């Protein structure tokens, strides 16, 4: 009589630890998704103001009226991503 390559386990599936390890990953993702959904519904993002362009113009006017000591910081903030021209190399 040939023996089977895997011995039969008579214990129920929930008694094996590796089964719970496999189930734990997707279960954590489901719980996290419901927590994220709750956060999204409980704290909605504020609506952008209808006159956002006018408010931006007012902010720029306020920034232009700043003291001279803050001008380099403001220019650095406004041009942080502006590429610096490289001098020609000979």
From TrEMBL:
Q: What UniProt keywords apply to this chain's record, in alphabetical order?
A: Membrane, Transmembrane, Transmembrane helix
InterPro entries in alphabetical order: FixH
Q: Would you say which domain of life the source belongs to?
A: Bacteria
Transmembrane portions of the chain: 20-41
Under what name is this protein listed? Nitrogen fixation protein FixH
| Origin species | Verminephrobacter aporrectodeae subsp. tuberculatae
Top-down, what is the taxonomic lineage of the species of origin? Answer: Bacteria, Pseudomonadati, Pseudomonadota, Betaproteobacteria, Burkholderiales
